[in-house]
Write a structure and sequence with these properties.
Length: 395
Amino acid sequence: MTSTTTRTIQMVDLVGQYHRIKPEVDAAFARILESAGFIGGPEVKGFEQELSGHLGCQETIACANGTDAIQIALMALGLSPGDEVITTAFTFVATVEVVGLLGLTPVFADVDPETFLIDPEDIRRKITPRTKAIVPVHLFGQCADMGAIMAIAAEHGLHVVEDNAQAIGAAINMPDGTTRKAGTIGTVGTTSFFPSKNLGCYGDGGALFTNDKVLAGRIRQICNHGSEVRYYHDILGVNSRLDALQAAVLRIKLRHLNEYASDRNRAATAYDQAFAGHSHLRTPVRTGHSDHVFHQYTLRVAGGHRDGLKKHLEAHGVPAMVYYPVPLHLQKAYATRRCGKGDLPVSETLAAEVLSLPMHTELDAGQLAHITGAVLSYFGNIHPDPPTHNHSDHP
């Protein structure tokens, strides 16, 4: 890649990534357009098989998007209205949106302040006789502590649905010494192929993973209107399928997924080195049990400077995003008397401090230097925080 700062810096550069694989994509699209096989067919089946091979799981079932994937997973597990599902409040709304749509009850656990991942001990504290499932989110490209979570699930007889929309391809070191891919450890795993994801298509797409062939059959049936034989509908289902054009893109990108992860880690290393030891910035902490594939590079910005830094970056041509400014337990749609302001202090603190910098496969040395320089220049221009005086001697 060329080293230059003349190109516009983007949070995600999908155009640049497309040009790297343009001949493969154009040939695949031409092949599908000539065949007019737009729904299902060999492209989708081939992608499912190849992704299963890459992840080391028995079954991959493609669907229309990542939100559908979580909903279909919960439907396939046969949960009943009122059953409780424990998940994190520090994530995108889709994770709990489908819980509510199915008449289930979301129960929020707090996250670890260093990794932003769901805290297994808080999961344990939130379990009640109505708890039926845990939905850990592998956030920003790093994985929840699946060893601890699976142990808790086994102890209480709970299902585990891995929301792996942001960490496809990441490896998890399990307590028994084995290494397994994210999304393949729980009862069922889900992912999204939204264009900005590490493995993204050119529209919407999603998938589910499982090593249970009976469960996989039920998932396929739900995806297809609850039908195994055309016009015969045995269970309640939905219409959720991955188009052949999207499957073709994903087959191509899957062959580059390890390379993409390396590109993202290279950018993350440049950020880490630039910000090491900075008093106002806390760089992402890597867990001891998971790879980090850096869907996002997310800083914690101390001293109330997050919003000021974001404006400064934008003024210097550097986009930055806040994921997620309002934890889900404080959103109007999910607010309950059971969990309100102050009940998830880590999630609430993170929402006020996190800031994500550009992270994608096309970042070059010049762009990274411009981004890190802009960040550091903000702190060079601010006045020091005023000293804290002890007023204990005053009335």
